[in-house]
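Quarterly update from the structural biology core.
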Amino acid sequence: MKQNKLNTIKTSGFKTPKDYFSQVEEQILNEVKIVDKVDQSGFDVPESYFDTVESAILDTVASESDTKVVRLFPWKKIMYSTAVAAVLILMFSLFFKSSDHVSWDDLEIVSIENYLEYEDYTSNELASLLTDDELDNDNFIDNEIPETSIEDYLLDNAELEDLIIE
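Predicted structure, tokenized:
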């Protein structure tokens, strides 16, 4: 494939139809004669059109304000999908039951203590959870706490300055 350089191109690349310049003058004169013969252009404007056009435009704009809103997610489709999801969840919960039953014994004592500590219960609120038999003084006196448990508690929770006897 041979590339043409700009300085070697001898023609402009544009062509005119045959006998174009000899017939152009006749075509222009014929068009002028036709325009002179026609009195009207064929387009009519009704009487007082420009007097009433502004109010007509404002009326159409005001009436178009009640457009219909097309929702992206229709309520029927959302309702059907949530119903299907609810049925699936119900089906899985009924047919695939876990055989493990969680009881109070399974719950760690530490998690209960942390819950009660961070919830800021007062002593009266905690006492309202216990019965009179459980709050009896004998229950607190008869319980013996091993000495190792007391030592472990003091080592974990007390400061050294608190343990030094003056």
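The helical segments are 20-37, 49-63, 75-95, 109-118, 123-129, 137-142, 147-157, 160-163.
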